[in-house]
């Protein structure tokens, strides 16, 4: 008598769907993965974003804000969605930083870079520092170069 179930024994390579790669991906060695975002995960990300923003402002519960920030980061990463650039999160505790409520913002001049680049004549950048009140982490964001507005205005005038 034969086996029950009627399943044929196939090699493991035939059971799994084969991932096809393009010639460009093969040449560069980089694989492009398209984020698969369905409406359910998109709505969940939006809801978690709203909860994280709410927890930073209205009740000002830092631990709840950190929890929702971590959940938002985990769900976004799992679904392959890029983080919202308008949200600034703490690099350590992943709390959504809201200046005035759970963080302070300072602009610092980059002194070490200024000294080092004096001989080259390049313009140093200012740093924007977000201090998280929950974990006391100093989140550093690179700013724009000093004098970038003047250069931009000169370029505009030269083109017209």
Automatic annotation (TrEMBL):
UniProt xrefs under Pfam families: Rpr2
Composition skew (Basic and acidic residues), residue ranges: 11-20
Gene3D superfamilies: 6.20.50.20
GO annotation terms (biological process): RNA processing
Ranges for region Disordered: 1-20
Superkingdom in the source lineage: Eukaryota
Protein name, entry field: RNAse P Rpr2/Rpp21 subunit domain protein
Source organism: Medicago truncatula (Barrel medic)
